Structure formats: structure tokens, C-alpha cells
Amino acid sequence: MTGEAWVERFDLVTRLVHWVTAALALVLVLTGAILYVPQLSAAIGRRATLNTIHVVAGLALAVPLLLGVLAGRAGRRLRHDLVELGRWDPTDAAWFRRRGLRRRPRADRPVPAGKFNGGQKLVAALFGGAFIVQLLSGAIMHWNKPFPDDWRTGATFVHDWAFIVLVVLTVGHVFKAFEEPEPRAAMIHGRVPAAWAERARPGWSARQGDGG
């Protein structure tokens, strides 16, 4: 490791937003599971308290991201990452085609990649969409008086299924993080080896000299 070159992948603001959001999401998943599964709810009790924690965590979920985005100069890298996560290009389609045909990368035809590959962009979009669906359906369930019965029934159905989707996404995200030690470590200390960046994210690596 001595003398190995490193490049910054995530700055402090981005990492704080990620981990605070992850902690809130974990609280939501745990409290939601207890409220959703009757056996757990009966065993643990304190349903009203758990429901309050669940609602507060849900309302707070967007706060870290909003604070990071609005953090002026300190949030510049986070805003840049969000823009890149939402920008799809032909290399993302190539990434999906390659993953569909074979899991091993083809050494003879490497696919240029930006800071995030197509899979990471898709997962970010799914997480964002699922969280929005949960917030809207949860609001109808919690503040239900203004809404008709069919809205409340539909919101409960959507909320339950979106919860299952979020659990699957979260478990998959954690497993994928353990499969890829460099990106996982980058979310802890912010850096990745320059050799990994050149190999796995050549497009992003090439921009580092320009502050990308």
C-alpha cells in the first residue's frame, strides 16, 4: 500500500448525507417491520411509540439530502453527483448489455464508465422513487381524515408493497457493497485507489485532473 496513489470519490458532506439517510432508513425498515408483522408487534409492544418513531423518521428522511444540496459551496460535489446519477448515456446501456450477456467484463472491449455505472443509477432512481411513494402513501395513512376510504385502502396497499421493495433494495445494496470493497471504503474515508478508478471508472478517472 505504500506509495499507492489515491483519488477522492466522496467528500465529507456526501458521506454524512449518505450515512444519516441510511440510519433513518434503517429506523424506518425496523419500525415498519415490527408494525407490519403482527407477531413482532405483539412481542415488542409499544405500538404507538413505534408508530411515532416511524412517522418522524419518515418525515426526516429527506432532511439530510436537502441540507447537503443547500450547503452552498460545501454541497457542490453532492449536487454534481446527483446530476450525474440522473444523467443516462450510451455507456449505461452498454453496461446493462454486458451484464446481461456475461458477468465478467470483456477485456477486449472495455466499456467507458463515469463516476456511477448504469446499475448504480438505476438503484438510486428506485430508492428515490420508493421513498417518495412511501412518504405520500404514509401521509395519507397517518393523516387520513381528509381522504375517502378508497384512498386510505389504496395507500395502505401501496405502502405495504413499497416497503417490501425497499427491504429488497436495501438488502441488495448491502450485499453489493460487500462485493465491491473500493466503493464501500470510499463511502467511509472518501478515497479509492487511482488504479481502481482507471480500471473500473475510466471516464470519471480521466476527469479528475479537471476537478470532476
Molecular structure report:
By secondary structure, the chain is an all-alpha fold. The chain has a single domain (6-101, 112-210), classed as Fumarate Reductase Cytochrome B subunit. It is 72% helix and 3% strand. It has helices at 12-36, 38-44, 47-60, 63-69, 76-85, 90-101, 118-142, 149-179, 181-189, 194-200, 202-207, and strands spanning 6-8, 191-193. Strands 1-2 form a two-stranded antiparallel sheet. The longest helix is centred in the last third of the chain and has 31 residues, at 149-179. The two termini are 25 Å apart. The model has no long low-confidence stretch (mean pLDDT 86).
- Number of continuous helical runs: 11
**CATH fold descriptor:** Fumarate Reductase Cytochrome B subunit
Helix content: over 70%
Range of strand content: under 5%
CATH class bucket:
Mainly Alpha
Query: Low-confidence parts lasting 5 or more residues at pLDDT below 50?
Result: none
Order of helices and strands: EHHHHHHHHHEHH
* Content-based structural category: mainly alpha
- The pLDDT mean sits at 86
| Fourth-level CATH superfamily | Transmembrane di-heme cytochromes, Chain C
- Oligomeric state: single chain
Q: Mind summarizing the main beta sheet?
A: 2 strands, antiparallel
What is the rounded Rg?
Answer: 20 Å
Strand arrangement within the widest β-sheet reads 1-2
CA distance, first residue to last residue: 25 Å
CATH architecture: Up-down Bundle
Can you tell me the overall shape? elongated
Total domain units = 1
Overall strand count: 2
